[in-house]
Structures are given as C-alpha cells and as structure tokens.
Amino acid sequence: MPRQVVQFDEIGLVTFSKNRRSKNIKLSVKPDKSVLVSYPYYASKKEVLLFIAKNEGWIKQQQSKMDGRKTKITVDTVIQTKIYRVSFVLSEKNRVNKVKNELRIGVSDFESEASLAYIEKCLSEIYRFEAKHLLPKRLKELAEKFGFAYNRVTIRNNRRNWGSCSSQNNISLNLQMMKLPDQLIDYILLHELVHTEIKDHGARFWQRLDEITENQARFLAKEVQKYSTYTL
C-alpha cells in the first residue's frame, strides 16, 4: 500500500509513504505536528518502525517548535486580508456578520477545538473567495508581461504546496497563498509559469526565474519557506 496513516500514542498521526525515488528513509514533521515518513519500496516495515523509534526524540522536539508557530486567535485579533478586515468577538453561537468590507466572526469559546475549526473554515472560505477573484487575473497579467502561455488555472485548498503546473500546463494554485505578501504571491505565480517552459528545478529553471525576478529567485524561495499552509 503506497500510503497509510497510523496513530501513534507518543507522536500522533504518522503517514507512511512509499517512494520509488527514495534511497533512504526520511522523516518530516508538518506544521499541524503530523509526521510524514517516506521510504524506498525495498525497506521493510520493521526497518521503518525502528527508524521512527530511533528518532522519536527529534520528532517530539520538532512538534514542540510547531506549537510556537501557530496563529493564536483571540477576542482582540484582527486580520487584514487582501479585501476584508476580519475581527473576532465572543458570541453565544458561531456566526459571521458582514458590513461592507468588514467581517466579524463570533465564536462562543476561543479555546475549544470546535470553535478553532469554525474559525479556520471561515478564514479558508474568505481566502477561497479572494483567491478566485484575484489570482487568475494576476496570473494572466504576469503571463502576458513575460511571454508565458498556460491552459487552465484552478484554485484548491491543500497542505502540501503553494502551487503546481501539470505536464499539460494546467496551473493549480493554493488558496492559502492569500495569506502571503503580494511580492511572494507574484513569486509563486512566476514559479509556476516558468514550469510551463521548464518542468524540473535544474539550473535552467532558476536562471529563467532569476531573469523575471531581478535575480531574486533564491531569496524569494527562502522567504516563502517562512510561511506555512497550515497556520491561520
């Protein structure tokens, strides 16, 4: 089975992923503190479990770091999105009020999992609306400016990447991009547009991306890494 998710008592959810290209067993901890283990097809289940057990201390350390990166939403929190000013208030029941470009999200308890899930759902819908209205237009502008051509563009909500470009030059964009500064949104759009010409991340790719980002490609790539698709 290529992918399997298992709950561990000490470290929580672990996703096991067989990878034909992997030569070694690799571990990564996602911002939601779940664990991804990627391993070659020839690695045995026993080898993978022993590797996880050996690195359990490191996994817990990384999970502790993730707690500090989470966005803390309180009654005083205000989030300025690309279009809306979003504020949060205490309310008897979960609700959203809209007045012009201001959204007020009310929840009954800022500590409960149900309220946090409701807040995340609301913010995702706000980002989805903004992404559909802003990203395709900006992608088209950049494509015309730099001479790229693509087919379809879709907006999705995923936790694995900011964007992707298929072999047919269909571009998929993550609605979570709307949390980023405009400069980094443009970088991601340009990154995917370059993939319409160059499908790998070799030297030619970075050279082409440098040409259209004033030699800032590597710097901008590192800046994007400071953000997470998981945090609110």
How does this model look, in words?
There is one protein chain. The chain is of the alpha/beta class and 232 residues long. 38% of the residues lie in helices and 23% in strands. The chain has 6 helices and 11 strands. It has helices at 45-54, 56-69, 113-146, 182-194, 203-211, 217-224, and strands spanning 3-8, 12-18, 26-29, 35-39, 78-80, 85-90, 95-99, 102-107, 153-156, 163-165, 171-174. The strands form 3 sheets. The protein has a 4-stranded mixed β-sheet. Strands 5-6-8-7 form a 4-stranded mixed β-sheet, covered by helices on one side. The protein is flat and about 60 Å long. The mean pLDDT is 90.
Q: Structural class of the secondary structure composition?
A: alpha/beta
Q: Uncertain spans, ≥5 residues at pLDDT below 50? A: none
Let me know the number of strands. 11
Query: Can you give the mean pLDDT?
Result: 90
Described by strand count, sense and barrel closure, the largest sheet is:
4 strands, mixed
Order of helices and strands: EEEEHHEEEEHEEEHHH
Beta-strand percent range: 15-25%
- Radius of gyration (Å): 20 Å
Terminal CA distance: 33 Å
